[in-house]
Amino acid sequence: MPEPGSKAELMRSLRCLVRGLSLLFWALPGTLLVSLESGVSELLQPLNVFPPVAGHALLLYGLWQLARFQPTERIWQRALERSRLLGIINAGLSPFIFWSNRMPNEPIFTASVGVLAVSGVLFVFNLNFVLQRLAAMLPDQGLRGEIRIFTRMNLALMAGMLTLLALYFGLLQWVNSPNLPAPLAVLHDLLIDGRRFLLVFFILLPVALTMSLIWKTKELVLGSVFDQSG
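^ that's the sequence the OP posted. Answer follows.
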């Protein structure tokens, strides 16, 4: 029978786990939304750099909450450390979204937003591995299988997104060149014309899948642990 002190500590860590998962569930789409809005419109300009920075800060806080669960599990903690590192990079680069919108012809701002886009994709990818490691510590075989399948699907989608980002930013350097080959010019036009579809398919779909996995994991913890403790 577990000692009262250890049981109380376990319950505190589980509360932090649920809190962290809830933060990630809401902050992930919120950060994507305010980042896109700050980068393409003037609606959030009165708030300066605050919206994207705040969104990324919430994601970091959610990961910090997760780290209080099973702090001695090295594989789990390493997965969290990788995600936190990417989260710190994203938070540091997020002001460039606002600055790039204000000064779109500044190359360093555009390049920083490009790095942020790549880092953001890697963050979501690593977040899937965090969920995979978390599921391995939970007593639900079905959830482990589901997360494994959707993680592979997200990997394929985000690998495609990284490839398209590399193509897009590479073509941006050549688009005004008279020596640009005709096939690359056609590819550039296709990327521009289909950017909305590509955004939905390669960004929103992985984010939606990740959110569903976060929600399922949170509900499992609430249902199978907290109900039993009551």
